[in-house]
């Protein structure tokens, strides 16, 4: 069964389905506010610490914000019941995954060439810890809603939230390991994030996000 056929076969627009759609939109609005603050603080901390992974994590927050905005668009007005709007939204979410990967790889190459090494700082530790605490709950809730709505765009946004939480954990580990001389962990995390973003973008484009 091709992805577009799965989307056309979404559940009927019952009262329960519409409540789930409103919940998806509300969670995306909450996430937009969260990520705006998170991205600004993460970028500031990453630049101060010369951390590729932390900077990449801050930029990932901007990409996630774009995905949240797409889901808000998807479930607003007449688009809520439009299969074509879901197709557009899931492809836009896929593109949002792909926006991050080239930057991460180029930034790793630049920092390695310049000899930059990540250094822990209090702001970076606080911001990533907050993300690690809150993003899993948002991501899992959106993936459940995506399955109920047959909405790969919603599931894809949830996956981005989970990637954000996993990356926050890796960034924290990388900063700590950097103090032990394992400086290579930080750029390795950034490259791994780029690979994950490419893979998840491909899955979202094909409409597989809600099944993954």
Automatic annotation (TrEMBL):
The keyword Transmembrane belongs to this UniProt entry's keyword annotation: yes
Places the protein is found: Cytoplasmic vesicle, Secretory vesicle, Synaptic vesicle membrane; Early endosome membrane
SUPFAM superfamilies: Cation efflux protein transmembrane domain-like
Cellular component aspect of the GO annotation: cytoplasmic vesicle; membrane
Source organism superkingdom: Bacteria
The keyword Membrane is assigned to this record: yes
Membrane topology designation: Multi-pass membrane protein
Alphabetically ordered keywords of this record: Cytoplasmic vesicle, Endosome, Membrane, Synapse, Transmembrane, Transmembrane helix, Zinc
Transmembrane spans: 26-48, 54-72, 92-110, 122-141, 162-185
Secretion signal span: none
Family under the similarity heading: Belongs to the TMEM163 family.
Alphabetized PANTHER family for the sequence: TRANSMEMBRANE PROTEIN 163 (PTHR31937)
Protein name: Cation transporter
């Amino acid at each position: 069964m091709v992805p577009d056929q799965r989307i056309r076969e979404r559940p009927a627009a019952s009262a329960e389905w519409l409540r789930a759609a409103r919940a998806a939109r509300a969670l995306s609005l909450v996430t937009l506010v969260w990520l705006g603050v998170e991205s600004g603080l993460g970028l500031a901390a990453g630049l101060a610490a010369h951390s590729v992974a932390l900077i990449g994590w801050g930029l990932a927050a901007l990409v996630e914000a774009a995905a949240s905005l797409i889901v808000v668009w998807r479930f607003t007005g007449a688009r809520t019941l439009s299969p074509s709007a879901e197709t557009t939204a899931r492809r836009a979410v896929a593109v949002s995954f792909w926006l991050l990967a080239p930057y991460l790889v180029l930034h790793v190459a630049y920092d390695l060439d310049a000899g930059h090494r990540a250094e822990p700082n209090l702001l970076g530790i606080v911001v990533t810890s907050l993300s690690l605490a809150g993003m899993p709950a948002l991501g899992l809730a959106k993936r459940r809603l995506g399955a109920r709505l047959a909405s790969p765009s919603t599931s894809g946004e949830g996956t981005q939230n989970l990637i954000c939480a996993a990356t926050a954990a890796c960034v924290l580990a990388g900063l700590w390991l950097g103090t032990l001389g394992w400086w290579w962990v930080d750029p390795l995390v950034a490259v791994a994030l780029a690979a994950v973003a490419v893979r998840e973008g491909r899955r979202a484009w094909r409409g597989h996000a809600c099944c993954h």
